[in-house]
Write a structure and sequence with these properties.
It contains 15 helices and no strands. By secondary structure, it is mainly alpha-helical. The protein has 2 domains: 29-205, no CATH class; 215-409. It is globular, with a radius of gyration of 22 Å.
Length: 410
């Protein structure tokens, strides 16, 4: 007992033999929460750059830049979180290497404006600073995997494959900086490297799964979703501020505040209905596909926050796009989010009741109605109020009747 207390009192180097995947009361650590704060900053910058590009009509540049930034942010966060769930020792080596990864996140963040500007320019893709930050994060994780390979003999091959896959991909990213390819070739090469990054963990886990903790990893992804939803709150505040600055406290300002907050709240409620922990406890082999789906869900949430930022610029008269394009910048990611959540629900439960299908149809109909509303000349505040009802339809339907089908499926 005394030796256990002494061990907990210091942060000396400890063997990285793998944690107990059935450990009771496993929750996110304060270091993981601190780590998440750097990604909140990075997502904020990505949403800001996306909103700026969309508001000026640079649609292709917006999608490419945001896609590149979102992958780098989501993948680096996910890889750290899953490794931490399996091998977090809380010793000084683990902590210092986590700090190095945090530095990489900050470097990646400051490189985002240059990336978007280079895509808008259309000549050469200047992602050198972003890639540098990404490589810093990934090299630190390689060192973590090598350490796990040394200490966890039962899973040594798995750890080596994880480390090797990351290292090979980073060599490719460095080549992308050195070669200075045109935008088209750089995007194609980056796409190949993304596939390489995604294949590494899938291949590694086939040789013996790492001891990640189901409830811990579900909690970590839920916290990541909350970070993304924070961009929705920022976007709602920007839209509200734009109305108040332009017209003062009016009915429109109240509607915009309610709509932006209600939309974000509804998206949170909808995500909270997913039975991720229970399904993964029963079917750990579904974890990889579930994790990839979580990345897409988070990306759509951040894009929704950016869309609210575009709506704010449109209200202020600073956008160079039509009202229809401004509304679509919010409605499109909301539609994607709804589709992803329903697809994730089916993936986890493997049953889809007819009532759920009707809820999806009606929710999608609300998104379409939002587009019709702007075409009919309804202002931005009214369109946002209509769009707010899209996730609300599913939430109300679930709480009134859908929960019964959910209980039967589980």
């Amino acid at each position: 007992m005394r030796s256990t207390v002494r061990s907990a009192a210091h942060h000396h180097s400890r063997p990285m033999g793998g944690r107990d995947p059935n450990e009771a009361h496993r929750v996110a650590t304060s270091l993981e929460l601190l780590f998440d704060l750097t990604f909140a900053t990075s997502f904020g910058r990505a949403a800001e750059q996306l909103a700026e590009a969309l508001a000026h009509g640079h649609y292709l540049a917006a999608l490419l830049g945001f896609g590149f930034a979102s992958f780098a942010i989501c993948w680096a966060w996910a890889e750290f979180s899953w490794f931490s769930s399996a091998y977090d020792t809380a010793d000084w080596i683990f902590r210092v290497l986590t700090m190095v990864q945090m530095i990489g996140v900050l470097v990646l963040t400051i490189g985002q404006p240059r990336l978007f500007a280079s895509i808008v320019g259309g000549e050469r893709l200047d992602n050198s600073i972003m890639v540098l930050g990404y490589v810093i994060m990934r090299v630190a994780l390689v060192l973590q995997w090598l350490r796990a390979a040394r200490d966890d003999g039962a899973r040594r091959r798995t750890c080596w494959i994880h480390a090797g896959g990351i290292a090979i991909a980073q060599a490719g990213w460095v080549m992308l900086i050195v070669l200075r390819l045109s935008t088209a070739f750089a995007v194609a090469f980056a796409g190949f490297l993304v596939l390489l990054e995604l294949c590494g963990p899938v291949l590694a886990e086939r040789h013996g799964g790492t001891p990640w903790h189901t409830h811990h990893i579900v909690e970590r992804h839920s916290l990541f979703v909350l970070i993304a939803l924070g961009e929705g709150v920022v976007g709602a505040a920007a839209a509200l501020s734009a109305v108040v600055d332009r017209h003062g406290w009016t009915l429109d300002s109240a509607l915009v505040g309610i709509a932006g907050t209600g939309l974000t709240f509804g998206m949170w409620w909808l995500y909270d209905l997913l039975p991720s922990a229970r399904a993964l406890c029963e079917h750990r082999h579904r974890a990889a596909a579930w994790g990839f789906g979580q990345m897409l869900i988070v990306t759509s949430i951040v894009a929704t926050g950016a869309g609210l930022g575009v709506a704010a610029r449109s209200i202020e008269g600073q956008a160079r796009i039509t009202a229809l394009a401004a509304v679509l910048s919010v409605a499109a990611p909301v539609a994607v989010y709804l589709g992803l959540v329903y697809a994730m629900y089916w993936f986890l439960v493997r049953r889809f009741h007819r009532f759920h299908g009707w809820l999806l149809v009606v929710s999608g109909g609300v998104v379409v109605l939002t587009v019709v509303a702007v075409l009919c000349g309804i202002d931005m505040a009214g369109c946002l109020v209509v769009l707010m009802l899209a996730p609300a339809v599913t939430v109300v339907g679930y709480e009134v009747l859908g929960y019964r089908h959910h209980a039967e499926a589980l």
